[in-house]
Amino acid sequence: MTAMIGLGFRREMADWDLFSLPAAFFEVVPENWIRRDRAPLHRLIEGGRPVHLHGVSLNLGGHTELSPAFLGDIRALLDELGQPHCSDHLAASGDAHQLYDLFPIPFTEAEVRRVSERIARVQDALGRRIAVENSTWYTNVGEMSELDFLNEVTRQADCDILLDLNNIVVNHKNHAGQAHGEQGLGGMALADFVQGLDQRRVTYLHVAGHEFDERFGMHIDTHSQPVEAGTREMARHLQREWGVPVLLEWDNDVPTQDVIHQELACLRSTTT
To answer: What is the C-alpha separation between 246 and 226, in angstroms, rounded?
Structure first.
């Protein structure tokens, strides 16, 4: 069976022949389409390519009150497109102002309860389940591992997981040497992280590339490079074992259509 492979649709791709790409579905940032002409999305759907919504502004880990107006806009867009998939990041994205960046949530029991309640309220407002993406974090504190935090939040909120394999790899590279405890949380290796997940909640996978930034001495989740071989092979393995789709994200320094075509082709796999 051919793997279902998707692509994150970005503005640099607006003039591409998207139907020539080996992508079975696309993913867009809903905030970018709430007040824009959505005809390109309808053309994709009419051509048999579903469009999933993956946001950055729900602020699931924040502290300010959730915006009923914004949630209403997201729900209206979901209803218009007729697509069930909606996701956002298990992170904060700004309280006093919308910063369009992702900030870590302390991995604590208290935060599990608080964030789970916010996710449940979002699901009630949207009238559907959502998936939360495990995020990259460059510094954090807590009393739990990231894996335990993710599992417990999704259990208490009764939501799904959009599993980002690249984020796990970046966190492991940056934090593997840290000890668990209040002063830091070690990043878990990809295979160990995946093994500890409740796979029944995983809706699909994200893969991307990243870079090492000498200024900070850290690997940065830039989505600007090809997918690493180990990440790609894990995605292919999980697609075979779990039957979940895989989506390629390339957000910065977007290359030519030929390069994206090659990256998508490399993700294709067959089950035996």
So the answer is: 15
Burial class of 56 by CB neighbour count within 10 A (0 to 12, 13 to 18, 19+): buried
What percentage of residues in the chain have a pLDDT greater than 90? 78
Tokens of 112: 């599990």
Q: Is the pTM of this model over 0.85?
A: yes
Q: Letter for the amino acid at 49?
A: R
Under a CB-based contact definition with an 8 Å cutoff, are residues 133 and 93 in contact?
Answer: no
Domain spans in the chain, listed from the N-terminal domain onward: 5-267
Distance between terminal CA atoms of the chain?
Answer: 8
> Which residue type occupies 182?
E
Closest CA to 210 of 168, 239, 175: 168
- Decide if 196 contacts 178 (C-beta within 8 A): no
Tally of helices (H runs) and strands (E runs) in the chain: 8, 10
Average pLDDT over residues 186-197: 92
Please check whether residue 157 is in contact with residue 116, taking contact to mean a CB–CB distance below 8 angstroms. Answer: yes
DSSP state of 92: B
Residue that has been written with the tokens 């919504």 in this structure:
53
The CATH number that domain 5-267 falls under is: 3.20.20.150
Entry field: residues in the chain? 272
